[in-house]
Amino acid sequence: MIKINNICCIGAGYVGGPTMAVIADKCPNINVNVVDIDEERIKKWNDKNLKNLPIFEPGLAEIVDRCRDINLHFSISVEEKIYEADMVFISVNTPTKKKGLGAGKASDLRWVEESARQVAKFSSGHTIVVEKSTLPVRTAEVIQNILRSAEQDNHRRGISFDVLSNPEFLAEGTAIEDLEYPDRVLIGGDNINAMNALHSIYSRWVSKEKILFTNIWSSELAKLTANAFLAQRISSINSIAAMCEATGADVREVSRAIGTDSRIGSKFLDSGPGFGGSCFKKDILNLVYLAEYFGLNEVANFWQSVVNLNNWHQNRISKLVVKKLFGTVTGKKIVVLGFAFKANTNDTRESAAIQICKDLIDEGADIWIHDPKVSKLQIEKDLEMAPIEQLEEIKENKLLSKIGKWRFSKSLDIFDKAHAVLMLTEWKEYKNIDWIDISKKMMNPAWVFDARSITDPSKVESANLNLWRVGDGTSK
Ligand SMILES: NC(=O)c1ccc[n+]([C@@H]2O[C@H](COP(=O)([O-])OP(=O)(O)OC[C@H]3O[C@@H](n4cnc5c(N)ncnc54)[C@H](O)[C@@H]3O)[C@@H](O)[C@H]2O)c1
Q: I need a surface site. Which of 63, 139, 210, 242 has the fewest CB within 10 A?
């Protein structure tokens, strides 16, 4: 049995950070090093004030508090930590390619390739390399090729590698719970000793029947497939939400009715503003690219339509807001509640809020954004424009920044003279809003657009506010 004493994880992001924190917590005798090229991110992981960790996930700060500087370390010492490791996880970003062959669909593997080269260059003895990033099928081959040529390099005698695929199925917002109680752990590979070594880590807290062995290609494809199926359910229910609004049905009732069918199940049947997050869209587009590559055009079209429906749905919400506000939002104050792509995370990647806010700013609205965990700077990056209050500062410094009519507020005291409230993230604090009190501050008539179904319609309506809820064909 190969014994693992030292782990190095390349990539201290939304996957690398929480995953390694849980491994360190469950395996006190394993030394876990998380490395990253992003110095700022590493500084935040090492910040004494746990509120400043770069990632917000319920339960994460407590684990970091227990393990950091004991058997969990964050650093930029990539070379040194690879050298010391028996097992290296590659957990780097794999976004959609922006240019070149496959642009707009295929994954950009430059960070994965760079990580493999670093492992090839700096490892010592036998190293098990684990793909944690979500990768197109047959990427392990690329990694294996890079590592094989290092094995054959005369200057690097005595080194050898095994490559495993161990995709991560955690969902942001519930990452720690998902890691501590996973539905399954997938280990793809062709060397049973290496697979057993990884098995021996997970089996400390995951029951053996939940740890599945597959071949490496099935493991890679299973991750893309899982995300494609989940995103497909969201597009399916959002398409039905639009049908409900047109026909007088209520999507919540339809969801309940179909979710009780055990063949369908009740999860992932909540209609919302469209799926976001760093993974769903990119992984489906990757699947589309692979299907096209293999000449499976019908398969490619099928999965592409899931993304198309999502884009259409987000666009439908901003258009609807304009339409309900008498066809124009120019100069009208609209309060946007929530910018993260879902509750309990500070991640905004591919958040529906980005496109919806951009659309409304383009239409001339005056947007006031609140989110309990997302920073103003992050919103500025996502909207690609500075907030309106920086206009003078930008003029004075003669900076060429684009300015947009939006503001950020940390407090919820922002409803004065608002024409509408648009609810885009299901944060707990938005569920208990006192609509009677707020309606007194808002314009009359005013609207509440609830894209997350978190309001109690009777409370909003008794406050004399107009209400639109996603998929509610029964509201006026
Ligand atoms: N975020 C999720 O919910 C989730 C869930 C499951 C799987 N995944 C997959 O996991 C992978 C990582 O996702 P993420 O959300 O953690 O990404 P992320 O962007 O948050 O983190 C990736 C980190 O890797 C670092 N990095 C890149 N190249 C490096 C190098 N050569 N050396 C050291 N560090 C390097 C980056 O600086 C960054 O901090 C992706 O393939 C993603 O598809 C993500």
A: 210
Least confident among 38-52, 134-148, 308-322, 373-387: 134-148
Return the SS3 of 32: strand
- What is the spatial distance between Cα 447 and Cα 241, in angstroms, rounded to a whole number? 19
Cβ 11 under 6 angstroms from ligand 1: yes
- Residue indicated by tokens 């005595």: 158
Nearest partner of 213 among 229, 230, 197, 226, judged by Cα = 197
Q: What is the rounded distance in angstroms from the CA atom of residue 93 to the CA atom of residue 111?
A: 7
Grade residue 168 by pLDDT with cuts at 50, 70 and 90: very high
Tokens of 133: 């990033």
Which residues are bridge partners to 187 per DSSP?
213
Cβ atoms 128, 162 nearer than 8 A: yes
> For 330-351, how does the pLDDT look when each residue is reduced to its tens digit (9 = 90+)?
999 999 999 999 999 999 999 9
Strands 126-131 and 160-165, sheet pairing: parallel
Region for 309 from its dihedrals, namely left if φ exceeds 0, alpha if ψ lies in -120 to 50, beta otherwise: alpha
CA 359 to chain centre: 22
Which ligand 1 atom lies nearest to the CA of residue 134?
41
Global pTM exceeds 0.85:
yes
Angle in degrees, CA 102, 170, 281, rounded to 5: 30
| 372-415 pLDDT per residue, tens | 999 999 999 999 999 988 777 777 776 667 888 999 999 999 99
How far apart (Å, rounded) are the C-alpha atoms in residues 220 and 216? Answer: 6
Characterize 132-145 residue by residue with b for buried, 16 or more Cβ atoms within 10 angstroms of its Cβ, and e for exposed: bbbbbbebbebbbe
Any catalytic annotation for residue 168? yes
Amino acid at 118: Q
Under DSSP, the state recorded for 68 is B
CA 36 to centroid of ligand 1, rounded, Å: 10
pLDDT above 90: residue 62: yes
| Residue-wise pLDDT tens digits, 205-260 | 999 999 999 999 999 999 999 999 999 999 999 999 999 999 999 999 999 999 99
Atom of ligand 1 nearest to the CA of 175: 3
- CA-to-CA distance for 408 and 34, rounded, in angstroms? 33
With a 6 Å cutoff on the Cβ, whether 13 touches ligand 1 is: yes
